[in-house]
Amino acid sequence: MRISKSFIPTLKEVPSDAVIPSHQLMLRAGMIRQLAAGIFSFLPLGYRVMKKVMDLIREEMDAIGGQEFHLPALNPIEIWEKTGRVEAFGDTLFQLKNRPLVLAPTHEEIIGWIAANHIESYKDLPQIWYQIQTKFRNEPRPRSGVLRGRQFIMKDSYSLDASWEGLDKSYELHAEAYKKIFSRAGLKFFIVGASSGAMGGTGSQEFMVESESGEDTCAICENCSYAANLEVATSNVVKASRVPADLPLKEIHTPNIKTIDELKDFLKVDESILAKSLVYIQDRTPYLILLMGNDQLNETKLQSIIGTNARPAHPEELLELTGADAGSIGPIGLKGFKIIVDKRLENANGLVSGMNKNDYHIANIDLMRDVKVDGYYDLRTVEAGEPCPQCNAPLRVVNAIELGHIFKLGTKYADSLNAKFLDVNGEMKPIIMGSYGIGVERIIACSIEQNHDENGIIWHKSIAPFIVHLILVNSNIESVVQVANDIYDRLNENKIDVIYDDRANVSPGFKFKDADLLGMPLQIIVGEKNVINHKIEIKDRKTNKRQIIDIDEVVTFVKNFINENDK
Ligand code: ATP
Ligand code: MG
Fold first, then answer.
1. What is the CATH number of domain 250-377?
2. How far is the CA of 139 from the centre of ligand 2 (A)?
3. Which of 277, 347, 441, 524 is the S-S candidate for 146 at Cβ 3.0 to 4.6 Å?
4. What are the residues whose beta carbons fall under 8 Å from the beta carbon of 10, sequence distance 6 or more?
5. Which CATH class for the 3-233+396-449 domain?
6. pLDDT tens digits, residue range 497-531?
């Protein structure tokens, strides 16, 4: 493609609403433009990358026996009502005003629907069905450019199996395919155990890229293989031990003491004997949650225990239910509450907590003696530096971007959509499903997050819009133009993707800057100085290494570069 004839609207300035590097660079390199919050146009350069990513995914999905579909994005709402997901998605689901239709945020429902109508017996199973298609989600605060769009492209696949062992196999096939996809795209990623969240199901893993721009947080062990989303991460943090003295409950006046830190300073005690009380409501039932000291409650863990509608009680509710405000609440004397306690405080005694009376606390609480505990669970959020649950080495806590997610769904969708098959013994059984997603735009943005410098993007060759950026330095010298034109033709004849900066009215310095910004892996620089000696210069965008080679060797050089394994 000749730059003189193409539409690549590069920008010199960084647009002020773009804060993360991939967003800034995609705008600056003329790959995308924002149409509205979370809605982006992919311009020709951006769309070339998108197509390369989709092709790469397609190859690996086909390799595990996936069959490609193209399902409608417009879905009758009644199918979504059957699975309860109109409610589960809530505001995230786009609904049409003039028809009972929704814009699909994912496609378990439609796959389940097709399976319910057309899969009859175990002989029709297993199946892997996939598509690469636009999804719609009314994300509350779309930031971060294409990393979180309201309209985005997902590769979603679904496995249909007759047995749980079959599901395990389909899941493994996907895990392997995902590793290949992300490795081939040149991404450094890690895999974490994840919460199955609103999808329901029995097992799930996320493929993550460490990045300051990430909205997920993960705990990673540098020493062993442990890595988990903070939503489910655990650690070997020290637990409370029982103290020998069996002291009676004691009221303490604690004027204006609201936080754990204030209480610790006031009482001059260790934080580990302070029990923090929080109140959550799940479907009208109030729950008192006890945590050690300043430990942070993990809402995802809580919701997986008491229910996904669990929410913090409002200040008025707190006062009405406990008789006190936040900061003075505790487990003694509460009525109508369920009390659940973090495992770190399992069977602990000698604790201090609120008295359910403003400005008062109670000391010497013994959870075995004084409190009817409804259950001990892992409820806390792991913090950096805590010992790894597998090997005790200190955990790192990092921000990360989720590239892909694999789920063992089980029979949830088959049950609600009545997707059944006749098994070997002639019995009707629900089809066992898995669901597997990859965000296409996220691969693109993550690749840029990981591979850029102050001058621009550094594309990995597998997804680069072009392999070669050919730069004509002296557009006013006919012999030089001839050589550049000739190289352009030869690269095209050899089916090598080349973008050719043939512009006549643009200075070489400007062309070099643009080439670095757009980030093609190889720059071929055709200038008078080398052409006189029948040579051209090649710059590797990643290593900055420059080489002078013979004009006749260009095609071979580029082909070798393409076929070379990554270092
Ligand atoms: P997140 O937690 O980031 O919202 P999710 O758990 O909702 O992601 P899934 O429903 O598992 O995502 O979707 C599968 C994949 O689709 C994700 O791993 C991600 O790569 C991509 N994806 C999800 N939401 C978006 C979005 N709003 N914009 C771009 N890609 C997305
Ligand atoms: Mg989401």
1. 3.90.960.10
2. 7
3. 441
4. 28, 29, 30, 514, 517, 518
5. alpha beta
6. 999 999 999 999 999 999 999 999 999 999 999 99
What amino acid occupies position 527? G
How many angstroms does the Cα of residue 102 sit away from the middle of ligand 2? 17
Task: State residue 46's pLDDT score.
Answer: 98
Q: Within the chain, which residue ranges are assigned CATH 3.30.930.10?
A: 3-233+396-449
Lowest mean pLDDT among 23-37, 229-243, 340-354, 419-433: 229-243
Q: 285 alpha carbon to ligand 2 midpoint, in Å?
A: 27
> Cβ distance 395 to 225 under 8 Å?
no
**Nearest listed ligand to the Cα of residue 141:** 1
**Which pLDDT belongs to residue 287?**
97
The pLDDT tens digits for 277-308 are 999 999 999 999 999 999 999 999 999 999 98
Ligand 1 atom nearest residue 439's Cα: 20
CA distances 162 to 113, 118, 154, 423, 436, Å, are: 17, 15, 26, 7, 18
d(CA 222, CA 216): 18
Query: Using CA positions, which residue lies closest to atom 16 of ligand 1?
Result: 439
CATH 3.90.960.10 occupies which residues in the chain? Answer: 250-377
Res. 37: pLDDT tops 80: yes
**Tokens representing 108?**
């378990």
Beta strands in 374-439 (DSSP E): 375-377, 395-410, 420-422, 428-430, 432-439
The strand pairing partners of 368, in sequence order, are: none
Q: Which of 402, 407, 408 to mutate to test the pocket of ligand 1 (most atoms within 8 A of CB)?
A: 402
Instruction: Specify the ligand 1 atom closest to the Cα of 106.
Output: 10
CATH architecture of 466-563: 3-Layer(aba) Sandwich (3.40)
CA of 414 to the centre of ligand 1 (A): 23
- Helix H, strand E, coil C: the string for 289-334 is EEEECCCCECHHHHHHHHCCCCEECCHHHHHHHHCCCCCCCCCCCC
Query: Which ligand 1 atom minimizes the distance to the CA of 156?
Result: 14
CATH 3.40.50.800 maps onto the chain at 466-563
Q: pLDDT tens-digit profile of 167-221?
A: 999 999 999 999 999 999 999 999 998 655 544 455 889 999 999 989 899 999 9
Q: Residue 196's pLDDT is what?
A: 53
Q: What is the separation, in whole angstroms, between the first and last Cα of the chain?
A: 29
Partners of 362 in the β-ladder: 251, 353
Q: Which amino acid is at 243?
A: V
